[in-house]
Amino acid sequence: MDLLLCAVGLVLVMEGVPYVAFPEKMKQALAKIPLLPTPLMRIFGMAAVAAGLVLIYISRRML
To answer: What is the rounded distance in angstroms from the CA atom of residue 48 to the CA atom of residue 52?
Structure first.
């Protein structure tokens, strides 16, 4: 449970950094999201999930 809370906290930190560092650029980037085709968004989502699973696998193998 401690590891899960740590992971969620790390995700929140990583998600929040761009909004703090580049708020205007984030507004511009978020405004473009509805213009992306759905299949492309799914590919990005699948790539993010795959990258996350690979990182989890690698980090667990190192312990």
So the answer is: 6
Residue 47 · residue 39 · CB < 8 Å: no
Close Cβ partners of 26 (under 8 Å, ≥ 6 residues apart): 18, 19
Per-residue pLDDT tens, the chain, 63 aa: give them.
788 899 999 999 999 999 999 999 999 999 999 999 999 999 999 999 999 999 889 988 887
**For residues 30 and 22, is the Cβ–Cβ distance under 8 A?**
no
Query: How much is the pTM?
Result: 0.72
Residue 18 in contact with residue 26, Cβ under 8 Å? yes
Q: Centre a 10 Å sphere on the Cβ of residue 34 and count the other Cβ atoms it contains.
A: 7
